[in-house]
Amino acid sequence: MSQFSQIRKKTAEVWKLISPYWRSEEKYRAWTMLAFIIFLNLGFVYISVLLNEWNAKFYNAIQQLDQATFISQCYRFAGLIIMIVAVYVANAFLTSLLGFQWRKWLTKYYLNRWMDQAMFYRLSLQRNKMDNPDQRIAQDLSSFSTGILTIGLSIFKEIVNLFSFIVILWSISGSLQILVPKLGKLGNINIPGYMVWLALIYAMMGTWGIFKIGRPLVHLDFNQERFEANFRYQLVRLREHSEEVALYQGEKPEASSFKQAFGSVYENFRKIINRNLYVHAWQNFYNNLSTVFPFLIAAPRFFSGALTLGILMQIASAFSRVEGSLSMIVLNFQSIASLFATTNRLLGFSSTMHGIESQIANPKEPCIQFLPNTADSLVLENIRLETPDKQILIEKLNLTIKKGEKVLIMGRSGLGKSTLLRAIAGFWSYGAGKIKLPVNHTLFLVPQRPYMPLGTLRQGLFYPGIERAIPEAKLLEILIACRLEHLASELDDHRDWSLQLSMGEQQRIIFARAILHASEWIIMDEPSASMDKETEMQVYLALHHYLPNSTVITIGHSPSLRAFHSRILELHPLENITDLVESRIVV
Fold it and tell me: Phi/psi at 401 (nearest 5 deg)?
């Protein structure tokens, strides 16, 4: 692929990130604000042109010792400054407001995509896991919306600036006569508007230099975001597992892990500092030279009497504007490099989600098919489950579970029991076969690790949400049945319950949650692994008592679970499930 094709492809990808907001339900408000901001930028350029004209009159008055003109120009300058400050403040306010509105919309848009069809979970199952999607939503979207708006408007303003001041500079800079005696008559070379050409050459040299020096910053900024996010994630992870680490006395390995993570942050930042040293040196040299460069090249005409002091100052001001517009990349290279890094991270995030969405909508590889089943049964036909790297976990699985059955699926660790639950839930497509789910019935799925949302204990019990009202007396009854009566007085307390409650208590919360939701199909993965046998028996009895007609499918390996199920299915390596029907359910 040619470099031009790559640029065109990259531009199209970036446009896909930018365009949705400007075609959304907020487009009229967004375009109106943008139009007003553009108007303010045009006003800013117009005032700059007036200031350039003021330069000539003001300095001519000084040269000619014209006190009256000098005083009147001071008053005019005060008026222009008031105007430019008002325009600048209004422009900064509206740009910030529009940037935040854009970020708000983007956050909602990407959160919806991230949450839809459990995308947040599917991303973690990818062969090449994407790092820190949370940071890309929380931080990169903000940097992207602000950066695109700020730099995009800067480019627009500098283009208008450029054309406005090129006309001025061309008209007042005059022509440069160059004599080359060896060429005879052809040696008299006349260059009209020579200051414009010198500004162009000067800016091109500055831009070439900054690209050569600063190009590695794009990759370094990309890595810095990743290393910072990884370090922050490890700190949060310790907070979430503080008890386990404390009991294991794992302070030393955790501290070593932190040092290693921060070491990556430090080493990469050192590289950024070193690279910025050269960038700042070039920018400083370029900026300082640009302040005297127009005077140096216009000085001969001034000393020859062809230019007045006012015109010299006007030329210097116009040259500075033209050169500054052409040097926009040089002067803002760090911001542009950071925006490129942020954009690349968001492109990776968006394209990965798009790939998963496309795979769900139009599978390209053989995968598990999910079909509705009008009969009250869950049917698995010729199921093969694989890991993402094609290692087979389960093969030729055929199974029918009827409504109301209490089924236990057993087998040693690593055979794919939990993966089977993910497949039934629709989150695992690696493999083949058909899963027919009962229509008009919701599945209540319980993963191996209990989950307690942030908020009150009541919200944890009702998670993810119950539409019908639950009488307080009924709720207390269920808590007692699940041996949670000691928490009845704390239902409306806001705490981090995942840290407050023991694992056994959290698992009992899960049983209470299942009873409160009253689903007709309940599938649980090791739901009582942290309970003693007596408590395990009581919560299963409570589940069967309150939901006698619900189908309960338990994935586990403890022999004690056999007593609470009428059908036991044993999973063997790469073989069909062995169906052992045992009517031994406790009542």
Answer: -120, 120
Strands (E), 365-518: 369-373, 377-386, 392-402, 406-410, 431-438, 443-446, 455-456, 494-495
In this structure, CATH architecture of domain 369-581: 3-Layer(aba) Sandwich (3.40)
Q: Phi/psi zone of residue 565: left (φ > 0), alpha (ψ -120 to 50 degrees), beta?
A: beta
Helix (H, G, I), strand (E, B) or coil at 217: helix
Note if the bond before 464 is cis, omega within 30 degrees: yes
3-state secondary structure string, 503-515? Answer: HHHHHHHHHHHHH
* Separation between Cα atoms, residue 211 and residue 330, nearest integer Å: 8
Cα–Cα distance measured from residue 47 to residue 81, given in angstroms and rounded to the nearest whole number: 9
Q: Which two tokens stand for residue 235?
A: 């700190």
Query: What SS3 class is residue 279?
Result: helix
Q: Indicate the pTM of the whole model.
A: 0.70
d(CA 55, CA 312): 9
Give the residue extent of every domain in the chain: 16-361, 369-581
d(C-alpha 425, C-alpha 109), whole Å: 25
- HSE (side-chain half, CA atoms, 13 Å) at 559: 0
Exposed, middle or buried by CB within 10 Å (0-12, 13-18, 19+), for 386?
buried
pLDDT digits (tens, 9 = 90+) for 350-391: 888 888 788 777 766 667 888 888 788 888 888 888 877 777
pLDDT tens digit sequence for 536-560: 999 999 999 999 999 999 988 888 8
CA torsion sign, 354 to 358 to 364 to 366? positive
Rounded CA-CA distance 348/329 in Å is: 25
Amino acid code (one letter) for 200: L
Fold classification of 16-361 (topology level): ABC transporter transmembrane region fold (1.20.1560)
Report d(CA 107, CA 145) in Å as an integer. 10
- Per the CB < 8 A criterion, the answer to whether 446 and 527 are in contact is yes
Evaluate whether 565 touches 404 at the Cβ level (below 8 Å): no
